[in-house]
Design goal:
30% of the residues are buried. A hairpin with a 2-residue loop joins β9 and β10. The protein starts with a strand and ends with a strand. The strands form five sheets. Strands 1, 3, 5, 8, 11, 12, 13 and 14 form an eight-stranded mixed β-sheet that branches. By secondary structure, the chain is α+β, with helices and mostly antiparallel strands.
């Protein structure tokens, strides 16, 4: 779905469930109410692959406002500080500061977020005026580009790992500039192998349901999982795995070392095992990816197997 601003991800799930009369519906990564853009929705048995779709990297296009910081780190919050934007600040200066965030970084979740503490989301504590110090989490920023700057507004693009809070990125950039900042608008353009070209709006959903062509917008699991690197196995090994027989970690590591991996994944924790049949490639299983340099004859654990 192409989520509109003002709607929560959970509200989108409820809407899809009602309109399609579906029993099982789940989304694959929360978008803040402020944000718009790509929100993959899993229907029926596809809810079993939510964790794998969520593992893909994300791309965003957004704007932030310098000189004003808020308690939510976005335009929906209360202003907590203001400061003048440096008059000599240039787009090159901003890009140099943005480059500090590229790579693996430690990021503290915003106080108004769905991250849980003792079973409750942080935003419930924040609304009560209770401050909870959460441990920073490791995220990866693959790129952080400043696209335009017309003080105090700057336009940016970010390519990042799952779990990255773009609001927090805006907040931290504002601190580096020295005047504070908050996120003004955000649009998710990619999630794993999916992009906005796959997405439909709520209005388009209604039209497709009305004319009976909603099936054209259902994406096959192979497309949704294409961001996970794939390794081809022979039909005999595929049958053994499907019957519950494990395979050697050493064998998988050897195939990886020989370059038997395809796909444009980020090198995350999973691998797809596929086998080639007369009518094309078939998904067999998803496994935990062995660490580089793995040795020894221990077993590979399959995370998910398709009959």
């Amino acid at each position: 779905m192409d989520k509109p601003s003002g709607m929560t991800s959970f509200q989108m799930v409820k809407l899809i469930k009602r309109k399609l009369k579906a029993k099982k519906v789940g989304h694959t990564g929360t978008l803040d109410p402020l944000a718009t853009g790509l929100l993959p929705i899993c229907l029926g048995n596809a809810t079993k692959i939510v964790q794998f779709i969520m593992d893909g990297s994300k791309k965003y296009h957004g704007t932030m406002v310098l000189g004003t910081a808020t308690d939510t780190y976005d335009s929906h919050g209360n202003v907590v500080s203001t400061a003048p934007v440096p008059s000599d600040l240039t787009i090159d200066d901003l890009q140099e500061l943005a480059n500090h965030f590229v790579g693996r970084i430690k990021q503290v979740p915003p106080p108004f977020s769905a991250v849980k503490y003792k079973g409750r989301p942080l935003y419930k504590f924040a609304r009560q005026g209770i401050s909870i110090a959460k441990e920073p989490r490791t995220v990866e920023i693959l790129s952080f580009e400043i696209m335009a700057f017309n003080a105090p507004v700057l336009e940016f693009r970010v390519h990042c790992s799952k779990g990255t809070y773009i609001r927090a990125l805006a907040h931290e950039l504002g601190k580096l500039v020295g005047c504070g900042a908050h996120l003004a608008a955000l649009r998710r353009t990619h999630s794993g192998s999916l992009s906005l070209r796959h997405a439909i709006t709520v209005e388009e959903l209604d039209r497709l349901i009305a004319d009976g062509s909603i099936g054209r917008s259902i994406i096959p699991k192979e497309t949704a999982l294409a961001h996970i690197p794939a390794m081809e196995i022979d039909p005999t090994t595929a049958r053994a795995i499907r019957c519950g027989h494990p395979t050697w970690r050493e064998k998988v590591a050897a195939l990886i070392s020989k370059g038997r991996i395809t796909g444009d994944g980020m090198g995350g924790p999973f691998l797809r095992l596929v086998t080639t049949l007369d009518d094309g490639a078939e998904l067999v299983a998803i496994i935990n990816r062995p660490a580089n340099g793995t040795r020894g004859r221990d077993w590979i654990k399959t995370v998910k197997v398709w009959a």
